[in-house]
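In the design runs reported in the main text, the only information available to the sequence generator was the tokenized backbone. The following block is the verbatim input for one such run; it is reproduced so that readers can re-run the procedure and compare outputs position by position.
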């Protein structure tokens, strides 16, 4: 049996959380977002986005850090890459923008690890698939999920109009109605890793 890669996780209590200026959402509705995506597609082609899977632990059980906007919409930290931007550098830029402190000296040393999942958006709608359908020659978006290895202690600053939630894997599992298909797939995507809960 192959050895499972080990991921060290640290207690949620070992991290510090602060606030920073609100970060207005560019789109207020899904329809607005898809319309903007269509406009950008005409200018730049397929959208490439990257998102971070940040793992902490509580009660020795893995939890994923998720941004909540308002009381309902949840997403992983990350976003769209600039044309030609490197995926790793782009994800570091997005993480710093979304949850990094204002002071550069406090920004975590983002350790971007394995790509754990790739999702495709064939059309200008909200449906994404964990594969690109063979008949789809011009997909509209490719989204990659990367495991980010957190340090033992880090400082995060969250825009005041967001909340950073620690959601246990068992709550994400098979729960697309609350978290969408991408986030509810994370428990399966991470099942090949062994989580090593380290007390601090």
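Verbatim output:
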């Amino acid at each position: 049996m192959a050895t499972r890669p080990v991921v060290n996780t640290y207690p949620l209590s070992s991290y510090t959380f602060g606030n920073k200026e609100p970060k207005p959402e560019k789109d207020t509705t899904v329809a607005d977002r898809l319309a903007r995506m269509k406009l950008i597609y005409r200018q730049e082609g397929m959208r490439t986005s990257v998102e971070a899977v940040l793992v902490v632990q509580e009660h020795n059980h893995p939890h994923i850090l998720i941004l909540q906007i308002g009381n309902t919409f949840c997403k992983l930290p990350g976003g769209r890459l600039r044309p030609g931007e490197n995926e790793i550098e782009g994800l570091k830029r997005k993480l710093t923008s979304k949850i990094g402190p204002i002071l550069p000296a406090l920004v975590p040393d983002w350790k971007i690890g394995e790509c754990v999942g790739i999702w495709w958006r064939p059309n200008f709608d909200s449906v994404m698939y964990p594969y690109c359908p063979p008949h789809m020659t011009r997909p509209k978006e490719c989204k990659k999920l990367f495991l980010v290895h957190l340090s033992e202690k880090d400082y995060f600053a969250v825009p005041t109009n967001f909340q950073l939630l620690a959601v246990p894997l068992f709550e994400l599992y098979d729960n697309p109605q609350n978290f969408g298909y991408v986030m509810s797939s994370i428990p399966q995507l991470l099942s090949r890793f062994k989580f090593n809960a380290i007390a601090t």
